[in-house]
Amino acid sequence: MRYPSVPILFCETRPLDQKWAYRFLGAALDHHHDDAGADRLTSALPAAGPLPAAPATPAQIRTWANAHGYTVAAKGRIPADVVAAFEQRE
Prior knowledge:
mainly alpha
């Protein structure tokens, strides 16, 4: 069901109980049919390829730069030549 946390409503009369029960069950059936159509569509989708590598964080670039003799401030912008050297590393 779409909303399992919604409490069941009991009305004062039996006709109202039946009316709300049929509405709830009809909505649940409609939702079920919507999911069946979505399953057919998603089964036709091609498989996703591998994710690209995540870009390096500034902390990783600073650590690498300090280990390789570059002078980099602890905060602020990293110089473009240091970033370029980091990207060209092996």
